[in-house]
Specification:
The chain has 16 helices and 25 strands. The chain is α/β, with parallel strands linked by helices. It is globular. Bound molecules: glyceraldehyde-3-phosphate. Glyceraldehyde-3-phosphate binds next to loops.
Length: 490
Amino acid sequence: ETIDQRHYLVGGELKEWKGNTTEVHSTISSTENYAPTLLGSIPDMGEPEAMDALQAALKAYGKGQGAWPTMHVKDRISCMEVFVGKMKTKRQEIVKLLMWEIGKSLPDSEKEFDRTVEYINDTIEDYKELDRTAAKFQKQSGVYAHIKRGPLGVVLCLGPYNYPLNETFALLIPAIIMGNTTIFKPAKHGVLLITPLLEAFQSSFPKGVVNIIFGRGRAVAAPIMQTGKVDVLALIGNSKSANALQDQHPKSNRLRLVLGLEAKNPAIILPDADMELTLDEVIAGTLSFNGQRCTALKVVYVHDDIKEQFNSKFAQRVDALKFGNPWDEGVKLTPLPEPQKPAYVQELIDDAVAKGAKILNKKGGQHFDNYIWPAVLYPVTKDMRVYQEEQFGPIIPLVPFSNIEEPLDDMAESNYGQQVSLFGKDVYALAPLIDTLVNLVCRVNLNSSCQRGPDVYPFTGRKDSAQATLSVHDALRSFSIRTFVAFKDN
Ligand code: G3H
């Protein structure tokens, strides 16, 4: 049964779309003779609908005196509680769509849904705390002040395909609760799973607070930016899209950016690392959701003293992973949602092999349509594309090193700076290294793979990896500004 999504949410109304539509396919085949599965279709909107959504968001914000930005904190929280209550009833439907639309395994799809509900509940609690703190008056040098956090205005929100629910909501929910009004365009893959939530958004929030439109970024997001009336660009995805949208804004220096972008997180494996633990963590770090995570380990530096042992065990472990469809028991590798990804992965493999790397695992690179077996490449050198590009897929570059300065130099030169995983046992050797690494990235993981969670910890990056910080606690701050009323002690 297909989902032909014909409604969009603007100004509190679920409007019916009568124009052109775009088909949504899954790369998972439902027949024995491979063929992508038709899941449904979505509206192919353009500038008029984008402008309607913008007008609705502007009207709901008013001059800062709209019903939403001025609503009492308790009432805003009640709206969010109503929404999350309705959302919880859609778990089964959304989990199923996560599996079909983006190929995420059943346990990971369930986790994405549950983590999102928890994120919303924790945001509500943190917001209550923020409000309690703001209630206090301060007095400094004879001036009383009541300092609060206020909204920024209209937020344009675009989420990524790898976490179309969780990461999109990690932007949208804090933006809404802080009193901003929003326009949200779902990701290309993972778009139908927003359908079951349209009514919940419509009935839980006042008119125009959340506006949801569908279409290509160029057709709907770009014209919104060109008006110069957006106050915040909130995007998780790639810097190319973020830059292109930012450039459309006529006064982009006024634009607040809340961006989660690319990363090339390294694992550095020292000679005394615990071999079994390191193998487990590097497998999870490189290949969870087929490596399609910004936090995935995307380059693995292995010390010369242990490279033979590590490389051969790692290659065997990769070939022993279970491949299948998302709902198969114990499955670790699943089909990739982007139809063009196998060709890209193949290009990276060909380039590396032409420049001297070998595929270490027997099944490496084998593929049947979008079912690709991960390729372990060794030795990877700086001139190879897989070393330079964020592969965001099942291909693992192993880089040998003899001196710790080699990976440190690479990290210092890199355009990215999100996280690192450091494997080793000697605390006296690790301590000075940690001191250096925290100045190159924002999170150092000791003997464990990189990850975003727990969601209360700051999630950010240096250089081209991020702008602003996302986490339960920090996102409320990223989507607000400190304002205050002051008076003198006369
Ligand atoms: O794509 C980037 C995500 O933020 C990764 O999140 O570490 O929880 O998988 P995760």
